[in-house]
Design brief:
The protein is built from seven helices and nine strands; from the N terminus they run βαβββααβαββααβαβ. The chain has 214 residues and is of the alpha/beta class.
């Protein structure tokens, strides 16, 4: 495949879509691994459509400097815990291993606030397992981004984020000094933070928790 600067996994999601818009402004080429083709005309975009992400190969990651992993679902959408874990754990870890083998320098992955292998909640536990195993891959620069509830337009309804959007317009702005990284955050800001991490190795957001391994 031709050389490119960045690859996005999960470009149809809330953060992934914002990130794609940002990268089209900032970069010359962006590769997308997708299950369905997007109706986009930009010559900067290289769309690779896969029936399932299980078919990701080393070739898909060659020539890439940064991988942005924005994959994520809910158990309600996935229907089963196993299906959820495939999207939120197996695919990101598979991508990280392929990226490492392909010589990708930066791997930036969205996790979640409160992720822990010791969590009593399955969602947070899976995210914690992913973080642990991503660190073991040995990518040159790994950044794990842990936002709280996301604010933005999403085709899929998620109750927690809907509540976060409701309160963010009224009460929460007054409590940001107390809530800190637990405050609901705009998907656009998460995307910008991910770009900053890839570009500068640091970020300027005060309300997003990030763990970096270099």
């Amino acid at each position: 495949m031709s050389s490119t600067q960045s690859l996005i996994l999960g470009a149809t999601g809330l953060v992934g879509n914002e990130l794609l818009s940002l990268l089209l402004e900032k970069e010359n080429k962006v590769r997308l691994l997708l299950r369905r083709k997007l109706d986009l005309k930009s010559k900067k975009i290289q769309q690779v459509v896969l029936e399932e992400l299980d078919s990701m190969t080393l070739e898909h990651f060659k020539g890439v400097e940064t991988v942005y992993c924005c994959l994520g679902t809910t158990i309600k959408t996935a229907k089963t815990k196993d299906a959820f874990k495939k999207v939120d754990y197996e695919y990101p870890l598979m991508a990280a291993r392929l990226a490492k083998e392909a010589g990708v320098k930066n791997f930036i992955c969205i996790s979640a606030k409160g992720s822990s292998i010791d969590s009593a909640f399955f969602y947070s536990q899976v995210k914690g397992e992913l973080e642990r195993d991503l660190k073991a891959v040995g990518i040159e620069k790994l950044h794990i981004v842990r936002p709280s509830l996301l604010i933005g337009e999403r085709s899929e309804f998620r109750l927690g984020e809907a509540i976060g959007q409701l309160f963010s317009k009224s009460v929460l702005p007054l409590l940001k000094s107390v809530l800190g990284t637990y405050s609901p955050i705009e998907a656009k800001k998460v995307a910008f933070t991910m770009w900053e991490l890839a570009t500068y190795g640091m970020h300027t957001s005060k309300n997003i928790e990030v763990e970096s391994r270099k």
